[in-house]
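Q: I'm a student working through a structural biology exercise. My instructor gave each of us a protein and asked us to get a predicted structure, then write a short paragraph describing it. Mine is ABC transporter substrate-binding protein. I'm not confident about reading structure output yet, so if you can add a plain explanation after the tokens, that would really help. Here is the sequence I was given:
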Amino acid sequence: MNDHPLSRPVSRRAFGRLAAAAAVSLGGTALAGCSSGGGKPSANTPLRVMAVNHVWSQAVAKLLPEFEERIGRRVSMTLLTSDQLANSYNVKLNASAADIDVMMVRALQEQLLFAHNDWLADLTGLVTGDAAFAWNDFLPATRERSVSARKVLSVPVVTERPALYYRKDLTSPPGTLDELMEQALRFAGRGDGFFGFVGRGQRAGAVSMWSSFLYSFGGDFTVDGRSGIATPEAIAAYEYYGRLLEQAGPPGATNMSLEQAMPIFAQGKAAFYVDADAIYTNFLDPKISTVQDKVGFAPFPAGPAGARPFNIPSWSLGVSRFSRLRDEAWQFIRWAADPEMVRRMQADGIPGARQSAWSDSATLAAFPADLAKAMRRQAEIGLGIDRPDVLQVGRARDIVGRPLVAGILGEPVAPIAREADAEFADFLVRDNRHREG
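A: Happy to help. First, here is the predicted structure for ABC transporter substrate-binding protein. I'll explain a few features afterward.
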């Protein structure tokens, strides 16, 4: 879900041994055909990797000399913000440009559109035909999100779940959403600028975090292919989240994205906060946080349908269909997502997508113990999506987020949800026509 630009600083721990430990055979089935223009590029042509500026890509960039020596070709890695990356893809891939080989993509945000546009190479035979790569070792929820149009189009490298951040000096973590509401309302009564709960409230931006509330109330974005946002379960989830922020949250919550909500908890002004586990280091950084010794980490609380958090591949790797170095691009992905590489990365605090890494306690030692326990459990039970599964994700999130805003403003949710449901139902018809066209 990587909706946020915040990621932990690169560790100063030496990465020199990582690539050697992740040594792999670079054989296997080749990617079929070059898509356009000319033959194989010369040996002087670099393998071009476009990636988001994230702790994972920063770590991999330090290891590139090891990989370059392995394949006998230079690697050029460009790191951009998520918006810059999306804009670059739109420009270059619409022009069938051959100057991108490996693409770092958000499987939940743009992969379906890229699949529809035929911008990603089919990796199915490569990931399933290489026993040493162990495709079945990837967490089922993240593996499923790598498939579009019955083809494996990406390989997950970074995963993310919600975390319940709480003030352990003030309370113990609630096990249920009812308990969370009760405690948040009680703390909200303290006054003095202290809030019981803080979280995202911005219309489209809040949808991904709200998804775990929706699932835990027994709802979903769609039911049998149709809009599900006006079901009793969805309305209950809207009303719950709205009440939580209206009665226990800070003023102006409907304008709050991650960047506005996170500092409120970091500065000791809220008892509870739900957001991505990937941002946890912000609360341990004395330059940002006043709660380093007071923050606790807990799993997402259980709702009427149990605890149903998301567990998503926030970033994955794919191969551009227009690349003239497809085989080398696959070799890069195979190296970067190798089982041993993932374990070593995760042991340095970068959560990966392999079951073997999550089953190895040594890989979790870099995380606070209570956070590691919560992450591991949610990696096992989490759902692999945190937003509508559509081509036009941004528009869908805007529609789905409308009743969220109504609830936060204290307005009746049900009629707004029914209006949004009708709009979303019409959107789904149009989106599916576009997908099939």
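A: Here are two points you could use in your paragraph. Confidence is low (pLDDT under 50) at residues 4-28, 33-37. The CA atoms of residues 219 and 233 lie 5 Å apart. It's a good idea to check both against the output above yourself.
Q: Great, thank you!
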